[in-house]
Amino acid sequence: MLKTALHRFNFLPGAIRSNLLHTQGSFSLLKPFMQVAFIVDPLSQLQVGHDTSVALMEALQKRGHRIFCLGLADLYWDQGETWGSVEEIVLDLGADPWYEVKERRLLPLSQMQAVWMRKDPPVDAAYLYATYLLDHLSPRRTLVLNHPAGIRSANEKLYALRFKEWIPRTCVSSSKALLRQFVEQVGQAVLKPLGGKGGEGILRVNAGDPNLNSLIELSTQFGRLPVMVQEYLPQAAAGDKRILLLEGEPLGAVNRIPGEGDFRGNVAAGGRVEKTEIAEKERALCAALAPVLRQEKLYFVGIDVIGERLTEINVTSPTMLREICQLEGVDLADQVAQWLEKKVPIKA
């Protein structure tokens, strides 16, 4: 056992070995390690200073665990179980690139203590098929998060409709007449495609705009796809709040301020972040969501709130963990890593 632990320790970059040797109580050479697989976009596309997946990988590695990565196309079924073509990586965020691939191999994913699905939307056919393959991992051996069935049930726009008392006035339709009627009733509205991310394709529309029909036609692909239209909340000018939830409990929050010349607060759309607090009514919202999220095993979730109104529930790859850590001066990623150590069904 000691030989295995020493091999694992020597496997890490020098800076990390030094950090572990000088960290009291957080790491032991004899401490069992987990094997955690992340299903993500290509590693070269992840932004070290922003990406929550990288923050989680880093926190787990610091605690002595092994990190594996793969994409949707790397999942397959063979010999009665779900496999992956995985890359075992070691992170060194001060280097370029920030990761080193130690080995690429084929493994049954049942060898992982946890498989974390953090591929960005769209949740298309390939994404859905991947969740069906993940269904075959036994929960007695491997924790899959968020749960594949939970992801399938929780479209990040439509899922909020389950909590209708918390959302702005909303209409979902592919009918130009109905959507236009809604906009005319509320005056100003936000038009959202149901499969986007990071504010992609979201439009602010006004009653009386001569382009309104055209905007609706483009958003619905001429009536072929439904879209969501919500009453515009003027508080959006001051930002929308991202609250991260871990097993239904608020973990932290950040306010996202729209960039100049835009109404969207998403950082991917040019917004900036600022420190914020979780208000009492927002905590009540989290408490209302918690039982449903736990039941559907949606463990790590990001909700978007404007003026204390719920606008979206993000379950695929919620972000902003890095930004909250930097603004608050706390290591929330390590808290998540500790939670995962306790949550996995079989301790390594």
Question: How is the topology of this model organized?
Answer:
Layout: H1 2-10, H2 14-21, E1 35-39, H3 52-62, E2 66-70, E3 75-78, E4 81-91, E5 99-108, E6 114-117, H4 125-134, E7 143-145, H5 148-153, E8 170-173, H6 176-186, E9 188-193, E10 203-206, H7 212-219, E11 227-231, E12 240-246, E13 249-257, E14 272-274, H8 280-295, E15 300-306, E16 309-314, H9 321-328, H10 332-343
Parallel strand pairs: 1-2, 1-6, 6-7
Antiparallel strand pairs: 2-4, 3-4, 4-5, 8-11, 9-10, 9-11, 12-13, 12-15, 13-14, 15-16
Helix pairs in contact: 3-10
Overall CATH class of the largest domain: Alpha Beta
Query: In this structure, how is the largest beta sheet organized?
Result: 7 strands, mixed
**Uncertain regions spanning at least 5 consecutive residues:** 1-7, 14-30
Average pLDDT over all residues: 90
**CATH architecture classification name of the largest domain:** 3-Layer(aba) Sandwich
Overall structural domain count:
3
Helicity range of the residues?
A: 25-40%
What is the alpha-carbon Rg in Å? 21 Å
Beta strands, count: 16
DSSP strand (E) fraction? 25-35%
**Element pattern in H and E:** HHEHEEEEEHEHEHEEHEEEEHEEHH
What is the CATH topology assignment of the largest domain?
A: Rossmann fold
- The rounded distance between the terminal residues' Cα atoms is 12 Å
Provide the structure class: alpha+beta
What gross morphology would you assign?
globular
**Number of helical stretches of at least 4 residues:** 10
